[in-house]
Amino acid sequence: MVMTMRSVVGLLLICGATPKPFPSSVVALPTFGLGNDHRDHRDVPQQRQEEEQRGRASGGGTASAPSTGASPSGGEEDNTSPHAQVRDEETSVLSLTATNDYPDIAWSPWAHLAEPHRATVLRADSEVGNPDNDVFLWTLPNENGASVQGREIEFTFTEPGRKDIMLTQTVTSTGERHTLHTYIMVKYVRREIRTLHSSDRVAFFDALETLYRLPTSEGVQQFGADYKGIDYFVQLHLDGAGVKDCDHWHDDAGIMTHHVGFTLQFEQAMQLVDPSVTIPYWEYSIEATEDLDSYGDSMVFDDDWFGEFSPSNDFHTMTKGRWAFLRVQRDAWDSVHNPYGLLRSPWNVDDTPFITRHNTTSSMTATDMVSCSVYSSCFASSSLSVMNACLNGETHGPVHILTGGEWHAAEEDFIQKVGYYESVPLVTKFLWRKGYLSIPDKCEIGESCQTSCPSELYESRGMTPYDVLMDVHALMWTSHTSSSLVYSSRKDKFEVKGHEDDEPFQRAYFKKMLNSFCNPGYACRVYCVSRSDKTPKTPRGVQRNLRGLQKQRAVGEMFTSAAPYDPVFWVVHPTADRLLAWRRMLGRQGVEGWDFDETWGYTHTSVVGETGTVCNWDDVVPGSGDMPTCITGICGGHNEDDLLPFTVKVKGENVQLTNAEWMDLMYPTNEDLPYVYDEFKWDHCSEDGCSFGT
């Protein structure tokens, strides 16, 4: 997950401002092939434009063959004979439409679009003969040479990609034949989850639940070697974000490429279960416009959708609906794990064997829901570097924090009074990475598991709690939200407001603050669980897993590096993908006022969670008390040419791509990208005067 909260103060808020101009005419949308430099293909024509041009040149109609030997993606050559088709006047009299039971994709650069495993209605039209009485023959060479007769037919494509079509009309009154050579683009379409037909939404949730309930070892027997269950994806995410040196997936330039690719890999695993499904997106800025108190009031968290937003039982786990008692993998000692051997972030010392959620941190609402203003401000970014940072932070981080939450924090009253409740898990993680936070190697389920920052670790280096807090940026981050901390430029230090000259008070204050980050909270014996009125009623065989669990500080999955364990994780990142896709399109089209510099990078600021630090643990002997060597640098995985740690299928082949190659692939008009988004509109933000270039 994105472990960063960013202040929106100082961001350019364009809601209510005069929208930047957008041309009324259709703008050519370039398409790019996998691995090709987009700057070499800015002028490649689109199928829709080609058909219109050939139709005008030949006296009407809409012929659909490309006008050059290269495919619109700039990739392999098209083996059809486009020039002969242009010269053939017969093609000008025929046209076709392709529809299904959803609205057309209005922004699509392709004249004809279909979806895999969804029935497509193909209808022919002609300017000659009597179309209702004439004979039409459809030939689909890429679909095993299928031939179907009829003016209007229904056909189901099975794979994404460009599919050739030959349409032939035989005029019954004269015997004349007219032929059209064209193609249809087949892509999965990602839609907002609330706009899905009920049957499609159920199919999505059914496939999603299969990946959560069916382990990889069993799934490969049923669905093939490429099947992967949820534990695989959580392990992969933890391997990148839950390790000691740095975060290889978040807080730098690779944030979007990692999550776009990761989501596509998960989507393709779902499609082994049901090839008709695709991952929808959750446009969570809608909730902020509906005067809801929290995301929990949204239908998205109905029991049959993503389940209870903030379970009120002692263990903060869902107990009803399709996601009741989702298990966390146990005995995960060979993977990144917590002290109980659970597949969790190491610093999350929670022994609950189920997925957890909570809507507060330290009993406070840590942040607001994502608003249209925040979204629009990020969209106004003039460079990829700046937009990467806000996509990492304020545009989707609040969803993780508000869904994951934290409870039973140590020094909770102090945290609330000072006002840094959203920072605690983020600082705790950085203390661990820098070697100050000590976590037990192994704890038994039901026994207290304490983490701490042993004073001898820092005192032996001549450091005080204040020095430690400064070293992990905690005071700088906390000062963003706390009015009790002030920075004295004269003394070059942070001080407690009103106690500037009281050194004993300040020493106690900073020691208490450090303890709030280092101590996992309070624990209690078994009886405190058994006496609780909020112990969840569980199915037979599950209750024994809850007996003896400790009440100690815990963090919900969505607020940790094990965030993929929460099913809602998968509909969050396509929302950011869609926003970036449209921003890149406006920039490449040269729309006035919407220039966009796609130079690889990330704009770092002093926000909570962004450290810009890489720690080397190679020479640290476990248990020695030695500290890692930490430097300012870029974490591996965030450089433009770094290879991402997973594969996806592109044109039927498993490929592993670099960040640069992912940026090429995920451009929305790339023919090799298996999916498109249904629309690039944010109509719900219009009342706020927010402009998204539309």
From TrEMBL:
Residues 63-74 have a biased composition (Low complexity). One of its GO terms (molecular function) is metal ion binding. Residues 36-55 have a biased composition (Basic and acidic residues). InterPro entries: Di-copper_centre_dom_sf, Tyrosinase/Hemocyanin, Tyrosinase_Cu-bd. Residues 1-19 form the signal peptide. Residues 33-90 are annotated as: Disordered. Residues 566-577 form the Tyrosinase copper-binding domain. SUPFAM superfamilies: Di-copper centre-containing domain (SSF48056). Keywords: Copper, Metal-binding, Signal. This is Scytonemin-related tyrosinase. It comes from Ectocarpus siliculosus (Brown alga).
